[in-house]
Amino acid sequence: MPLYAMSKSSEENRLFKLLKAFEEFYKPWIEELWYLRIPTFGAVLSFLSFWVIDQTVEVYRVFALNAFIEARLPNIQDWQTFLSFFFIFILSFSIWYSARKLSKKLLNKKEAAGPEKYLALILGALPPLAFVFGLVRAALQAFQAKSIQELIVLSCWIVLVIILCCVMYSLVINFQDEIIKGILAFLLSCLALALFLLVFIKGEVASILGSVSIVAIFLSVFVIGSSSLLYWGYKSKFPIITFLVFILIGSSWLDLNDNHRIRQLESPSPHTLLTLDESFLKWKEVRKNEILAFEKAGKRYPIYIVSAQGGGIFAAYHAASTLSRLQDLCPAFANHVFAISGVSGGSLGAAVFSSLINTELKPYSGMHLNEIRTDTL
Asked: Which of 77, 163, 204, 362 could disulfide-link to 66, CB 3.0 to 4.6 Å?
């Protein structure tokens, strides 16, 4: 046999062995992922939701900003921060436990062999890991904005989440199944209670839970419910999930869903805005007694024009909380505001402040709330 033929045959054998070894490595992972496709989908979706989405990172910055508002009582925002931590870890536990049970039940083995035995742990770790990455993104934004207080809070939260992840890893590795089942029962009870309150009380509970908690609750219920349906489908040899998908498609096609159409109101009567000069003269006329009192005291009457910058959810919260804080410190502040100009999130925060003034603040001498109600943004 020629020498080059022997060399070619040897290279083909090495390539074949390499491909064979690669197949032996990835095949168990692919098989495991196929049976764990529901927990995998939930884990990947949570990873994207808590890290990649910009609005979620802005919510983290809002939590951090709220932690440093001075001289206030505990409020809803504090509960949102705590519950976000709590329900993200419930989601993590739900994904891990669902993946672990599906692996045992569907693959008919007590424990997965080889590296793939850690797959359930990897999937369960994705939500808190995404939470850490999202907090890091928020911390980088705070660093760029030179907001030292935010940076301190976010850094502490990052360390706290990492510690909790280590504790959770030790928990699921070392504890017995009976203890795990007891913890699972407690967490599922909390999840069921939150879901019940969301369905029957709605608005009030949703405002306490916050957007991050609601997303985590939805994903937890989705993973647990869909994993159970997947298991029952395999055992009964009936494609339950596929059947439900066809029902959803059919009901949408036949227009049987409640699509919550937007309620349409009659068009308001045309409203002609005053010019800037006319608005300012009218604004001064309402406050002429106060202006005269300031002049008699030898003082100038303060007039404020507020400019609120854009920046999404964080800018909206920053504008609303700053203006509200100024109003708390100086109850006459709103009476001295001639105009508020804002873009994007800043305009939303300004609108929230204006709405609070109109609905929560009682009129006092010299105050003319009708002027604030005029939309001059």
From this structure: 77
Q: What tens digit of pLDDT does each residue of 40-89 get? A: 999 999 999 999 998 899 889 888 887 766 544 455 566 788 889 999 99
Local structure of 174: helix, strand or coil: helix
pLDDT, tens digit, 9 for 90 and up, residues 217-257? 999 999 998 998 888 888 888 888 888 888 888 887 877 77
CA-CA-CA-CA torsion for 170, 175, 181, 184, nearest 10 degrees? -10
C-alpha distances out from residue 89 to 2, 162, 165, 238, 274, Å = 65, 12, 9, 33, 54
Which residues have CB under 8 Å from 239's CB, separation 6+?
Answer: 233
pTM of this prediction exceeds 0.85? no
Calpha distance 211→80 (Å, rounded): 8
Instruction: Quickly count: other Cβ atoms within 10 Å of residue 201's Cβ.
Output: 11
Instruction: Give the pair of three-digit tokens for residue 290.
Output: 């106060």
* Length of the chain, in residues: 377
- The amino acid that residue 99 corresponds to is A
At 60, is the secondary structure helix, strand, or coil? helix
* SS3 call for 142: helix
Task: Give the pLDDT mean for 319-327.
Answer: 86
CB 65 within 8 A of CB 314: yes
User: What is the C-alpha separation between 345 and 267, in angstroms, rounded?
Assistant: 26
Report phi then psi at 366, rounded to 5.
Answer: 90, -10
User: Euclidean distance between the first and final Cα of the chain, in Å?
Assistant: 89
Q: Given a cut of 60, is residue 372 above it in pLDDT? A: no
Which residues, other chains included, contact 311 with Cβ-Cβ below 8 Å and sequence gap of 6+? 58, 318, 344, 345, 346
Whether 83 and 210 have beta carbons less than 8 Å apart is answered as: yes
Q: What are residue 304's DSSP bridge partners?
A: 337
For residues 376 and 373, what is the distance between their CA atoms, to the nearest angstrom?
A: 9
d(CA 57, CA 60): 5
Tokens, residue 331: 């109850």
d(CA 287, CA 368): 8
Count other C-beta atoms under 10 Å from residue 337's C-beta: 22
184 within 8 A of 95, measured Cβ to Cβ: no
